[in-house]
Amino acid sequence: MMRAPKLKAVVLAALLSLGALQAHALIYDPFVDGAAIKPVDELEERLWDEAETMRAQFVRGKPSPAVETMQRIVRGVVMKNWPDLAPKLKVFVIDNADVLAFSSANGDIFLSTGMLMRLDSEDELQVILARELAHVTHRHAVRSVYFARMAAGAKTVFELATDAADLASTVSGVAGVADLAKVGVQMFKVSPEMLLSTGKSMLQDQINKLKENLADSLLRSVSSTGFSAVVKSSLFGYSESLESEADEYAMGYIEDKFGSSDLYRQVMQRLLDEAMLDEKKFSAFYASGERLYSRLKRVSAFDEGKAARLEARRASAATALAATSPAAVPQPPVAVPSVAVAAAPAAPEAKAPVTPVVQLAPDAVVLDAAPMVAAVVVDDVPAGEGSTAAQPTAQPVVANAEPPTASAAVIKTAALGVKQDSPLQYSTALQPLALPVLEVELESGRLGRLSYNIERKREATQLPEQVKELLAEGYASMADPAKVAKGEALAKEILAAKPDDARMLKLMGLMALKRGQAAQAKELLSKAREHVLTDDERGFLDQYIRQADKKLSAL
Fold it and tell me: What tens digit of pLDDT does each residue of 238-252 get?
């Protein structure tokens, strides 16, 4: 009768110890700013060291020129939108067709070319970057490992508590020290004296040692795999509570910048639509339909609280305005200068800001400058009479016959060769990455993703002309007869414009061979053979030409 109550009491003690560990985990609060991003204890230092090692798993050698260009653009987006955090972050674009974005404890952020193919602009890129930044600044990696250690420790405490309860139950029915000593030696391999005098502290020591051993084993496992548990968590998704934090940060950032969370919803909906069409389900976070559906539910809940957030901002702004109003902040008296003072002023007289007497072009950039620095206008002017060439020129701005005290420098970026249209830069850099990504999707049999990614409407990026061939092959490889017919029609359309296109000739020949049209297949495959470039391709076609010959000889 006594066993159950004692077991309950000891297990309760174990759960309370777990609660204490959870409270300790609160020391891993989010970093308050960029300067605070650094490891604070041995566990976090080990994870940062592991992240340095892990980087080599994804960044191997010098990236291709196209990947390197995109990497510079992505880093520029981080610098422009998170200038405080940017010095502590390292952003890498990896040449991988899967839809991947993940981060490490030390501020490494990885984006795949496959992910970038799903994002149409720098604005959409900020959605994904914001989530990964949240994982870094909220220290999700170290918190995940810490909670894993707690789970390992809690399991040990529970098992030992159960054993202790069994011991208590056994001892309760035993009379005499000799029997008690026998039980102690049998269950814990200790002397009677240890059991009677220091049993409690001995049990606690054993618990502590086992917990530390489990924790060390976990970290050794992290360091020995080459593909650490931390990166796996980032790649395949953290716990829902941590993912929720990342969502809240990203949605709040997007709402603050663009006025609503629509952009966040748009990106997640696109990724979900594609994931639902994928024939080969992939569990990575941004290709998981279940995870993406959770994101969309979360953004709906976030939108419901928009009115309350706006009201809180209004109240905060009103408080800040009241704190800086004349009634709240005493203002120094303003002296009215006399004529004598104007001639020889004892102190500079306050003046209203002087507006430069220039007409600013629409693409001009206004930069703050130090007081008493003359504004400079750099613009395009004709090089000479009758000439259409242009060259940069500079001139001081003088306003209302005053000294040149304009408060800004105005630079026309076109004259300096700077492209201010960053979305165009992004879409232009994306073009050479598209074909390799789509080729991999075709080769891996991800035909639903392939067709969706090619045919969906894009804001700015124009895909290379060759993607039509990939789409034709993709449709021709599907099981749906209607899609097969669509692929064949697209192949004929391409051949009408380019009769010697070897890829489409091969596709049409293989489709004819599959239908049993041996003569047509041989003609198309033989013509394709004339235009292929490598011996491997010719050897491949020769195999199917022989198959067509066999069918013809059998007729």
Answer: 888 999 999 999 999
Q: Which helix (H) or strand (E) holds 102?
A: strand 101-103
Q: State the Cα–Cα distance between residues 284 and 99, nearest whole angstrom.
A: 8
- C-alpha 11/C-alpha 162 separation (Å) is 7
DSSP string, 199-244: HHHHHHHHHHHHHHHHHHHHHHHHHHSSS-HHHHHHHH---HHHHH
C-alpha distances in angstroms, 99 versus 130, 215, 292, 345, 350? 16, 32, 12, 67, 58
- Cα–Cα distance, 470 to 277 (Å, whole number): 17
Give the strand order in the sheet containing 364-368: 364-368, 408-412, 376-382, 390-396
Q: Do 79 and 61 meet the contact criterion of CB atoms below 8 Å apart?
A: no
Domain parsing of the chain, residue ranges: 3-24+143-230, 364-416, 423-553
**pTM metric for this prediction:** 0.67
Reported as half-sphere exposure (CB side, CA atoms, 13 A), residue 44 has a value of 18
Give CA angle at 145 (241, 53), nearest 5°: 120
What is the number of other CB atoms lying within 10 angstroms of the CB of residue 131? 25
Query: Within the chain, how many helices (H) and strands (E) appear?
Result: 22, 7
> What angle do helix axes 140-172 and 199-224 make, rounded to 10 degrees?
150
Q: With bands split at pLDDT 50, 70 and 90, how would you rate the model's confidence at 321? A: confident
Nearby residues of 329 by Cβ (< 8 Å), 6 or more positions away: 323
What is the percent of the chain where pLDDT is above 70?
62
Pairing of strands 90-94, 390-396: unpaired
* 63 and 93 Cβ atoms separated by less than 8 Å: yes
Bin 380: left if φ > 0, else alpha if -120 < ψ < 50, else beta: beta
CATH class for the domain made up of 423-553: mainly alpha
Cα gap 90→92, rounded to integer Å: 7
DSSP-derived letter for residue 381 is E
Q: Chain centroid to CA 192: how far?
A: 59
**Distance separating alpha carbons of residues 545 and 144, to the nearest angstrom:** 58
pLDDT digits (tens, 9 = 90+) for 439-488: 999 999 999 999 999 999 988 888 999 999 999 999 999 999 999 999 99
Placement of tokens 């405080």 in the chain: 84
| Cβ-contact 40, 94 below 8 angstroms | no
Residue 104 DSSP label: -
pLDDT digits (tens, 9 = 90+) for 371-399: 333 333 333 334 444 444 444 444 444 43
3-state secondary structure 148-181: HHHHHHHHHHHHHHHHHHHHHHHHHCCCCHHHHH
Which 3 state secondary structure label does DSSP give 550?
helix
Q: How many angstroms separate the CA atoms of 467 and 463, rounded? A: 7
Contacts of 383 (CB under 8 A, 6+ apart): 389, 390, 391
* CB 103 within 8 Å of CB 90: no
Residue 132 CB neighbours (<10 A)? 24
Instruction: Please check the confidence at residue 271 and state whether its pLDDT lies above 70.
Output: yes
**CA-CA distance, 342 to 361, in Å (whole number)?**
37
CB-CB contact of 275 with 118 (8 Å): no
For residue 108, give the H/E element and its range.
strand 108-112
